[in-house]
Amino acid sequence: MSKLNVDQKTIMLLFSDKKSDFLIPDYQRPYAWEEEQCQTLWDDIFSFAIPDNNYENFNDNEEYFLGSIVTYKNENDKMEIIDGQQRLTTLMLLLRAFYVKFGKMQDENSKKTREMISQCIWKTNAFGIADVNKLKINSEVATDNDKEEFLEILKNGEVKKEQKSNYAKNFRFFQEKIDQFLSEYPAYFAYLPARILGNCILLPIDAESQDTALRIFSTLNDRGLPLSDADIFKAQFYKFYGEKGEKDSFIVQWKELEEICGEIFYPTTGTPMDELFTRYMYYERAKRDIKSSTTEALRKFYERDKYSLLKRADTFNNLKILANFWQDVSNQNSERFSDKILRKLFTLNYAPNGMWNYFVSVYFMHNKDSNEKLDDNKFENFLTKIIAFIWTYAIVNPGVNALRTPVFAEMLNIVNGKSVEFAGYKFDFNNTKNAFEHYVFSNGRPITKSMLTWWAFTNNEQSLPSAETIFEIEHIFARKRQENHKTLKNEKNLESLGNKALLEKRINIRASDYRFSDKIKYYQGFTNSKGQLKKGTQIKELVKLSEGNIDFTEENIENRNRQIIDNFISFLNENNLIK
After folding, report:
1. pTM of this prediction?
2. Other CB atoms within 10 Å distance of the CB of residue 510
3. Rg of the chain's alpha carbons, rounded to an integer?
4. Helix, strand, coil distribution of the chain in percent, nearest 5
């Protein structure tokens, strides 16, 4: 069981403790507090310490809780801050601003308060005298270009006019607040900092390891952003490139990578950078011949052998290459991909689950050439086969966890130079057809939109929509029509594939409850009474249906449903996925 040291302490007791040697580690995020947060802190502390603007109303036994500080003692005996960095940094700036103001005051209260503050900011000798050359806090934040400014402010108590960092702005803010307080309440000026030091409480939680501290942080923190796995990985890279004298270049490249990932990845859990590391992890897993369908946690995978994978020169470069590939997928880059590839990738964007992203990442990383390109025909064959397999597996063996076993086996085949065949997982013709025919393709099931997207692109005339286009599921025979007129004898036909198609959201809003004859103009496009052209749908099948029919009947639904399912079974057969 992990050991924890938890003991509520005043700011004075915590900061002045000789063991308190704080380090903001390189994987932390830059200092982000602005005037709004500082104003809130000041207002809260002031109203506590000087109740009703009268220092005599203060109860010496009262305490004000400022939050927790989660740390662990690293190998250099530094208290590495996992949670509380923003709060701790701001309190240091506040105390330093008070220290400056007390500089020329000679009354006993002021001198004593100044001495107390000095013991919180600087390390002290055996007699409790502060050594102004040794701060009690240091920052190694890799992506914080202003961290040296913070340390200089603490050392010198000065900010220059040209300094615009949050450290400088917040220090000036506190100086202004202190000047205002001194002018309004000169007689009891020293009471405010004394009560901040003696009655404002922090809860330091000292964990025995970084992992324990991070787990505590994730549990406690329900407001800020917890450190992501990628933040931890960034620190390892930073150390690696720092030793090579390339840390500045790394920081620039890391920020560029964060920007790319932020634009293209939208994970349901974790950060966009975590998603990139996850996609790359599957490639490294396959290379290590890991067959298990149970994937370990992202951080656990990369921290193997003391993060050895992150201490290799090729790893960061591979991550950049992989991110660029997915950026081109997201942007539908026609210079990298042919139209037939872009059509397959568009279809996969509507896959019933996200496993294809990892599958394609492994394929790309292994098969890319020296120019980071793929053989067009081979890539098309691969994408076609995984569409057929993943779509079918979602119906005959639903659940992303079930899909892991066959896909992980094929990932190993990829890195071993073998073709993707799904040899041990082919489908029985009769069972598969029966499963499709009896499957309920409700709108809430992802496979429904997957099937409709695949079907739309079986039409060779179907153009490639932009990735930003939002498609919804259209009931060609409207549900409202069935509610009102009960025309369909078999109500199940209403929710069958034969009655559904992709349709742009902008059109679906208008066309949803109309009879087929009323929908025709929305499918084809029309000019409204104001002379405005309303574009029709990009889905070629709907346009063709609207041009050749004045109604869409139950017979049409059943015929189209058979057509879709029969074509998909043939598609499976063409890809050698039927036993």
Report:
1. 0.77
2. 13
3. 32
4. 60, 10, 30
